[in-house]
Amino acid sequence: MSAFTFSDNEYGTVSEIATVRFQRVLPGPIERVWEYLTDSEKRGTWLATGVMEQRPGGLVELHYHHADLTTPGDSPPAKHKHVVEKGFSFAGRVLRCEPPRLLSFTWGGVPDPNSVVTIELKPRGKDVLLTLIHRHLGDRESVVLHSTGWHTHLTVLGDRLAGAAVRPFWATFTKLEAEYEKRIS
């Protein structure tokens, strides 16, 4: 599969109003995938660094540094340059934590400060089925943005776990954003 080709089953689906859902089969074992969700340093290689207290009510801090997620020469589109130049952070709270199978937390970010992310892991032989659901997104623009973002970040996670070359973050994001604009009515 080329770096910029995705099968239809890799795209997130809008299963409920203001909700996006992704599934990925990732190289296991499940404990390793769990570490990439909860350990700040490992999470920082595909999403964001920060505290994640693994208990209901625990603090979740996400500090995004997109420049650390991509390859040299991969520039962000103009409308997202501020994200790279300044980075951004936000906090939420853990709602459920059942290591190493379930993590649910509030998403304290803009533009949807009251949304919820739930990630479930299920062993599948040597692999792990990851299901990510992001609920209570505000509007179509937010659904497009979060679909694009999660798809891109999960692509980086899959590359990291597989030991493959990480695809250029912003080139991937830009291609996916155009596709989600078409797919989400």
Brief rundown of the structure:
The protein has 185 residues and is of the alpha+beta class. The chain is built from 5 helices and 6 strands, in the order βααβαββββαα. Strands 1-6-5-4-3-2 form a 6-stranded antiparallel β-sheet, with helices on one face.
Shape: globular
Q: What is the name of the CATH topology?
A: Alpha-D-Glucose-1,6-Bisphosphate, Chain A, domain 4
Q: Look at the helices and sheets and give the structural class.
A: alpha+beta
- Could you state the CATH homologous superfamily? START domain
The count of β-strands is 6
| Contiguous helical run count | 5
Would you tell me the overall average pLDDT? 90
Q: C-alpha Rg, in Å? A: 15 Å
CATH architecture: 2-Layer Sandwich
β-strand amount = 25-35%
> How many strands, which pairing sense, and closed or not: the largest β-sheet?
6 strands, antiparallel
CATH level-1 class? Alpha Beta
Q: What are the secondary-structure elements, in order, as H or E? A: EHHEHEEEEHH
Specify the helix fraction band: 25-40%
Side-by-side strand order of the widest sheet: 1-6-5-4-3-2
Number of structurally distinct domains: 1
Taking pLDDT < 50 over at least 5 consecutive residues as the criterion, the unreliable ranges are none
The N- and C-terminal alpha carbons lie at a distance of 28 Å
Oligomer: single chain
